[in-house]
Amino acid sequence: MRILYLNFDRGIPVLGDKGASVHVREFATAAAALGHEVLLACARLGSGNAAPPVQLLELTLESAPGRTAAQAAACGVEARSQRLPPIEQELSKLVYDEWVGSRLLHELAARGYRPDLIYERHALFCTAGVGVAARLGCPRILEVNAPLAEEQKRFRGLVLESVARRMEVESFRGAAAIVAVSEQVRSYIHGASGVGLQGIHVLANGVDVERFACASGREPIRQRLAYGPGDAAIGFIGSFKPWHGTSFLLGVFEDLAAIRPAARLFAVGDGPERERLRARVGDSPFRDRVCLTGRVPHAEIPAWVAAADIVAAPYEPIDNFYFSPLKVLEALAGGKPVVAPRLGQIAELIEHGRTGLLYPPGDAAACRDAIVSLIDDPAARMAMGAAARCAAAGQSWESLVRRVLAIAAAAPVRSAA
Hints:
By secondary structure, this protein is α/β, with parallel strands linked by helices.
């Protein structure tokens, strides 16, 4: 089968380190491994990780002042407001969406590539895939990873909100079927667009089970960090964003470090909270027992998981937790017990007492006690780790791709224009 994968979100570089970038690469790689011919068209290729074994097509539009002015006029944006950063960014997305559909069709014709299926990652201010699917007469499956319009409004600000929501609904309704990463995202799509629940399928993130299960031994990273054989390493791997709970985790670690001298903490990743956390670590009496690594290529993540004794996923309590945490799945595949709050899909991924320990969201004392119990019981850690690896086996990317293709097989085919 020929699969055209669309990733028109410029904030998700295909070769980048973000969880979203990993998702794009892994899905495309799994589809290729299953024998499908994949062409991945993206707004930004990026760098930092190996390319997936598929055809790559980067579609960039550097500058289009005439198009920007036209979009601004259509949205009722005054000329003097067009260069304000939030509005300028939103207008640039509208311009890109208007341009990329025809450009993509031109490139496909030049390559003689006519897909059997379009698989698109949902992006804000993006409806081009709807038109492309109609022109090509093939089903379009839309993957939705977050309530993007709502998320943008809440965390970063959304000026052209009515336009964003209208386009989001158009994208939802223009899909032959929708794949949502969690029940919370499914409910959002249904409520925002009226798309029937039967057309929205919940598929959690996948994981490269073999890569994490077969990671090289734990010692190379531990030697680099000067850990002794009796040290208990708590690992965090993810994004340093406020809701990922790195500040919460440091507070928990300071409490348990005072009573467990063998405890060590490493945090892998980058983000807006990292410098603030670094300053806080510098003032901590336990600073010699904390390592903030910064950015690490995803190819090296399995080795960091292997180096940990316990993996923490300390998400802060937020309303309507809609994430499908990739790093939780990777830790489980790496055979590590995960300590995390009982939030949303996390409570489905982690079986309390068998593959990890769950605590009430925001309860630092409960989180500390859970970690201490695992530090004190190495046998329990190993048993949970073995069970975690078994639990993750059913969440491979190949399994996810097969399920998507089964959904696509039952999806309606649109007539070519």
